[in-house]
Amino acid sequence: MIDHRSVAPTYRLAWTIPDTLVIARRNLLRLIRLPQLLVWSTVQPVVLLLLFNYVFGGAINAGGLKYIQYLLPGFLVQIVVFGSSQTSVGLAEDLSRGMIDRFRSLPMARPAVLAGRTLADTLRYTFLVLLMIGVGSIMGFRFHNGAPFAVAAAMLSVLFGFAFTWISAFIGMSVKDVETAQVAGFVWIFPIVFASSMFVPVETMPGWLQAFAKINPVTVTVDTVRALSLGGEIITPLWKCMAWIGGILIVFLPLAVRRYRRIP
Amino acid sequence: MAGGTEPAKSARFQGEAAISAEGLHKAFGKIKALDGIDLAVPPGTVTALLGPNGAGKTTFVRILTTLLAPDKGTASVAGYDVVHNPAAVRTLIGLAGQYPAVDDNLTGRENLEMVGRLYHMGGSEARRRAGELLEGFGLSEAANRRAKTYSGGMRRRLDLAASLVARPPVLFLDEPTAGLDPRSRLGLWDVITSLVRGGTTVLLTTQYLEEADRLANNIAVLNNGRIIEQGSAQYLKECCGGDVLVQLRLADHAQTALAVELLSTLGDGKIKSVAETGDISIPVVGGPSIMAEVVRRLDAGGIALAELAMRQPTLDDVFLALTGQTTEASTEDVAKTTVSKRGRRFGRRAP
């Protein structure tokens, strides 16, 4: 006889948070134990920031601002968006090594493997954002709007990264191998990063591109972070930005979890 | 094996099958991975799924461990339906997949503690259980080293230990000894044997016939998504393995014809010989008593023996007869063995 009684409340929503923390800890340990990965993923954005500032800085007209002032808020957003591509790579790795199968055979909360990964990655972004603010300050960047807004700017960048991590998690659950994840995790990021107000004012682009750049989530987030950092209109870009973050999470969080539950 | 691996929860499904499947179908596109599988595994026994690559073994295990949904049919594990109550099934099973699922960047201990926490053990309980298992699997010394530094055999043991953290009454092992050296393989067999003695039900897949022969109470031969035959190793050998052969080689092959004449009334009379080498084989039904008679007759005829052996059919023969394929472990070429399916060649000794 087959028993249809539902069993032990061990598998309930209540376990989502503890299970997520166990997985997040595992992913953070990995970061700490691969010091080379940590060093290089830290050096890379610093090198990029230096290059962008000193190579393009002289040529780009940033509306009368010193270029580092214009660049850094965008750079905070850039770093979390590019960083999010690593989520799909990590998950594809877990998938190919059978870790995901093991987790799926355990009585753990279903979203925990993905949530643990995105949480760990979000902590990584926090570190990178703070690092970039530090390096930027050495290069002459200053917050003009006071400490509370500076904190809000950093937090918004991290939150935006958290949302993007879920897109990346969905990609990681959808591709068949690590190599594909490496490519698929990146290609869609380039257009939205560069066709935005991140490096140059949108008004300098051709009209058709401006149309895209203006609704680009990266643009509205960069504009918000910039306004929080330097002053200016905050409310309008902020609600657009929050709408994007909410929209991305509402769509991609369930999609990614659904993928996880039904890996073919 | 040290203690601490005995299952705590096996009592609740006593008297019914620990694992059962009825009419399971699963297709991937046009490929029918499972084409109607029925299987019942009684509690506390070992069933081996034996089959060539692509026979559907792993697909079957993935369905039973809730990783994959079947297209058709039902399956239950420890009394719970795998489709309708997967959460309950997951609390009662352990799975060691085809490749060891251990996190290279964590230590052996951290790997096991993590699994314990994900079974919702408390911190101290997870620590204690990890310690017990590391000890039991001979990994105590390596416990605080990262799994990256482990040998293949150690990774397998750690993986198996991870599948046992919650003392599951039902254990699934997908090719548990693939790629292991003979010593590690023997060690793992001992572990599995002691688990079963403690009451655990085991379903394992394997390509190694010796493994199935050694461990399993029941062997199900899978081919093209169907179970084509099942039973004990002994039953399979009798039903599908062909004859028992007495094989002998003469010291002087010039005496072959004389020897054949002397022995011709033994066995079922279908004696075969190769005059160039002095090899003779006699299919028999009787059993070992015939060996003495062979020696007596040849001795009386003044014929000296170089070798004398009785060859039991092996699971290899069964497998071959049923699937028309060799296993990965066998090095024989297929064309040759298909031809000599029943009349086995000379020169192969009983294991």
Structural description of this entry:
The complex is a heterodimer of chains A (264) and B (351). Chain A is mainly α and 264 residues long. Chain A has twelve helices and no strands. Chain A has one domain. Chain A has helices spanning 16-33, 35-56, 67-83, 85-96, 99-104, 112-138, 147-174, 178-187, 189-194, 207-215, 217-230, 235-261. In chain A, α3 (67-83) packs across α11 (217-230), α4 runs parallel beside α7 (147-174) and α6 (112-138) packs across α7. Chain A is globular, with a radius of gyration of 20 Å. Residues 1-10 of chain A have low confidence and may be disordered. Chain B has 351 residues and is α/β, with parallel strands linked by helices. Chain B folds into two domains: 10-238, P-loop containing nucleotide triphosphate hydrolases (Rossmann fold, 3-Layer(aba) Sandwich); 240-339, Alpha-Beta Plaits (2-Layer Sandwich), CATH 3.30.70. A six-stranded mixed β-sheet of chain B has the order 6-7-8-3-9-10, with helices on both faces. The longest helix of chain B is centred in the middle third of the chain and has 16 residues, at 182-197. Mean pLDDT of chain B is 83; it is low at 1-14 and 327-351. At the A-B interface, α1 and α5 of A face β5, α2 and α3 of B.
Topology overview:
The complex is a heterodimer of chains A (264) and B (351).
Chain A: H1 16-33, H2 35-56, H3 67-83, H4 85-96, H5 99-104, H6 112-138, H7 147-174, H8 178-187, H9 189-194, H10 207-215, H11 217-230, H12 235-261
Chain B: E1 19-28, E2 31-41, E3 46-50, H1 57-64, E4 72-77, E5 80-81, H2 86-92, E6 93-96, H3 108-118, H4 123-136, H5 152-163, E7 170-174, H6 182-197, E8 201-206, H7 209-215, E9 218-223, E10 226-231, H8 233-240, E11 244-250, H9 256-263, E12 272-274, E13 279-284, H10 289-300, E14 305-311, H11 315-323, H12 334-339
Number of helices of chain B: 12
Q: How would a textbook summarize the main sheet of chain A?
A: none
Dominant shape of chain A: globular
Can you give the helix content of chain B as a percent range? 25-40%
Give the largest interface. Answer: A-B, 33 and 38 residues
Euclidean distance between termini CA atoms of chain A: 29 Å
